[in-house]
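Bumping with the actual sequence this time:
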Amino acid sequence: MKAVAKIIAVAFTAVVVLVANPLASHANGGGSKKVSTLTDAQVSVKYVGTTNNQVVFQVQFDNPTGEKFSLIIKNDAGDVVFHQQYNEKNFAKNVYFDNTDTEIQPTFVVRSANGSDVVRHFQVVKTVTENTIVTSL
């Protein structure tokens, strides 16, 4: 009788180990893809200059995991004027604004798949200088 009880106890222990092991491996998301946290250092937005009466900014994002992210650009009033999703690992894009106003305040937002944002605000002031030369004839 002791031998039967010992076999049942070993079998029960084996079943518990086999059933509990897959549950433990999935406790932290199992095989789901890990979404990394977006950091401020990964995003660079730089003023490049003006060309053909347009203001040019370069947006760069170091995205080593290749996860999906959004580039959102807002105007002075906070309205979204550009919204596009990408998944490039080394993202770089030049953004052009018409240089017709004397002042613009674009806001660049890079948003990761988990909803974290890196935001960059700029103020561009256009100053026009007029020179008048008078010569006596």
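The tokens above came from a reply further down the thread. The longest strand covers residues 43-51.
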